[in-house]
Write a structure and sequence with these properties.
The chain is α+β, with helices and mostly antiparallel strands. 46% of the residues lie in helices and 16% in strands. Strands 1-2 form a two-stranded antiparallel ribbon.
Length: 166
């Protein structure tokens, strides 16, 4: 009679949570944090990821969804957008209370920081901060050095010109 297959840590710690892993990645958890949540080591998760396509797909799917949401948010922030703000309050008239809701339309103006970030990533050749300088002009300055003969020690002590004798 054949022995039943022994369950691995992958079967007990990972498989039951395969449907939750994309949501964890979408929340921004790193693979290391996912491994901690599953109760396995990061290196073990890497081995499981290489051996099991369904785990690899779950990790990728959540990350791709997160990236897509972040890109949408960045685009909205860069371009500006309209939104509704709801204010709920209670008005009292004697013994009667009425709940009133006030809906206001607001506009979030385009954010220059988000615009710059998006442009630097979408068109890095045109919008990067640093530009490589390939051509430059150099001005060479020529300094002429004239050899001045050294003075004699005897001539140093005497004045240059003698006053005329009368």
């Amino acid at each position: 009679m054949a022995k039943p297959k022994r369950q691995t840590k992958y079967d007990t710690h990972v498989v039951p949570y395969l449907d939750r892993i994309p949501a964890w990645r979408k929340q921004g958890l790193t693979e290391k944090q996912v491994a901690e949540r599953l109760g396995v080591g990061y290196s073990t998760l890497s081995v499981y990821k290489n051996k099991n396509v369904e785990l690899l797909e779950a990790l990728k799917k959540g990350k791709e969804e997160l990236i897509e949401e972040l890109e949408d948010s960045l685009y909205r922030r860069a371009m500006g957008f309209e939104y509704e703000e709801v204010d709920t309050y209670i008005e009292e008239f004697g013994d009667v209370q009425k709940v009133k809701t006030k809906i206001m339309k607001r506009v979030a103006l385009p954010d220059t920081g988000a615009l710059a970030f998006a442009l630097k990533n979408l068109a890095p050749d045109k919008w990067r901060d640093r530009h490589d300088i390939t051509e430059f002009s150099r001005q060479e300055k020529v300094i002429n050095i004239i050899d001045i003969p050294p003075e004699d020690e005897d001539e140093k002590d005497q004045p240059d010109e003698q006053p005329p004798k009368a």
